[in-house]
Write a structure and sequence with these properties.
Its EC number is 1.3.1.88. The chain is of the alpha/beta class and 461 residues long. Helix content is 49%, strand content 11%. The protein starts with a helix and ends with a helix.
Length: 461
């Protein structure tokens, strides 16, 4: 507890490490409005060791940015130690991410996808704990079984972990299947450990934080999405979204960061306004913006449209609220995005599939011959011919049939065989355009081309 109290100052309001989101300007903004402890984004240990530019950007900090914990991911104790030694002079502690559930962590074999390899995890924590001059902390997710979660936490403590953050969701609870975090796991883990325990999950406002502290007995509460949609969360306030946006943009001018980070933050701050059909063009404009001037223009445009409503000069009408989840609070105020419960999402997907099947049946010609594969699944005449040809090459039959049956996660179209997003080409193109991404599988290079355009624009200047 000495580390928690003396070094960190006993913080209770904590901003989580967030990939491409908890960079220096955002951390400073959060600290100005109540955050008492911040983490860097999750840093890839191998890249951190090899790339000086990546290392310089990752360790960007200032006097206002304290106390700070640097978080790393990886699966090699030696590389993690090398990275931590390079970073220990710039922070109060080194955190190891054993909780990331995203697909990129699965492909890289780190984060929550290490949680079944206890000997490796113990070696990582022990190696860093013995070799660093700053404490080692860990961030994990719970298992389905409470006893297994408790044993896991005890192992981390005995290996040298000095502070544990427990996310009350399992590795599988993510995206549309996120659901609610279980605070009871945090409560039970906190009771058996002698090190400080932070609770993570279900915090969208200060009232949530107060309930979490009372329920779990944790020393502090960490929030991620709640902070992204409302960086003033810790002050019990919900400002008009252009206010934190403009302050954040000013900080970005003082402490430059990639435009992709800025774009991502503005999409979340303006989420409910950009969901309105009347702002569809601004959403597209934000997706394509690649200069501070353009970001400023979008913030000013939204302010000019909705400031009269905010100040009471104009009356807000219910007719404006289509596409904003029937919000009780006006959409220009900073507020969290509440996901649909997993059960409702699954029902909705099932209903859409049935509707699609009905439409397909209605569009079928009554005399049209129907083709089916060996398992009885309907297929096209073209696919039937292909399967007959492949019948003469049985070694390729299984892989082709498997790919044929996989569908896009957003629609009924077949997904691209090499698409990292598990989408059809149209859905993937839309996602890449809005979120500034590349998809090598579909040869969609939105992010790369925007970077090239920005580079050549700077060269001309």
């Amino acid at each position: 507890m000495d580390f928690w109290k003396d070094t960190l100052g006993a913080p209770t309001k904590i901003v989580a490490p967030m990939v491409d989101a908890s960079e220096l300007p955002w951390r400073i903004l959060s600290r100005r409005y109540g955050a008492e402890l911040c983490y860097t984004p999750m840093l890839h240990s191998a890249i951190f060791c090899k790339d000086p530019k990546y290392r310089k950007e990752a360790l960007a900090t200032c006097e206002e940015d304290k106390p700070l914990i640097v978080q790393f991911c990886g699966n090699d104790p030696k590389i993690l130690l090398e990275a931590a030694l390079l970073a220990e002079d710039h922070c109060c502690a080194i955190d190891i991410n054993f909780g990331c559930p995203q697909a990129i962590a699965k492909r890289g074999h780190y984060g929550a996808y290490l949680q079944d390899e206890w000997p490796l995890i113990e070696e990582i924590v022990s190696t860093l704990s013995k070799s660093l001059k700053v404490p080692v902390t860990c961030k994990i997710r719970r298992f389905e079984e409470l006893e297994k979660t408790i044993t896991y936490a005890k192992m981390l403590e005995s290996a040298g972990c000095k502070l544990l953050t427990l996310h009350g969701r399992t590795r599988e609870m993510k995206g549309p299947l996120t659901g609610l975090a279980d605070w009871d796991y945090v409560t039970e883990v906190r009771k058996v450990l002698s090190i400080p325990v932070i609770s993570n999950g279900n915090v969208q406002c200060m009232q949530d934080m107060e309930r979490c502290l009372e329920h779990t007995g944790a020393v502090g509460v960490m929030t991620a999405e709640g902070n992204l949609y409302n960086p003033y969360l810790f002050t019990y306030s919900m400002p008009p979204c252009w206010q934190p946006a403009k302050e954040y943009l000013n900080l970005c001018k003082q402490y430059p960061c990639p435009f992709s980070y800025i774009r991502g933050h503005l999409f979340k701050l303006f989420h409910h306004l950009l969901s309105l059909s009347e702002n569809a063009s601004l959403r597209i404009k934000l997706g394509a913006a690649n200069s501070m001037e353009q970001f400023d223009e979008i913030a000013e445009e939204l302010k000019s449209r909705y400031l009269p409503y905010h100040e009471g000069e104009q009356q807000w009408s219910e007719t404006h609220e289509s596409g904003t989840q029937n919000l009780v609070i006006p959409p220009w105020l900073c507020q969290s995005y509440i996901r649909m419960p997993p059960e409702e999402h699954l029902k909705l997907v099932e209903c859409k599939q049935k509707e699609s099947e009905e439409i397909n049946k209605q569009n079928e010609h009554p005399n049209k011959r129907k083709y089916k594969d060996s398992e009885g699944n309907p297929i096209s005449r073209k696919m039937m011919k292909k399967l007959r040809r492949l019948g003469r090459r049985p070694e390729k039959m299984d892989s082709v049939c498997k790919k044929t049956m996989e569908k896009c996660t957003n629609c009924v179209n077949p997904l691209g065989a090499k698409c990292l997003n598990k989408l059809c080409k149209k859905c993937c193109k839309d996602k890449c355009f809005l979120e500034n991404m590349d998809c090598p599988g579909h040869r969609i290079l939105v992010k790369t081309r925007r970077q090239m355009a920005a580079f050549f624009q700077n060269e001309v200047k």
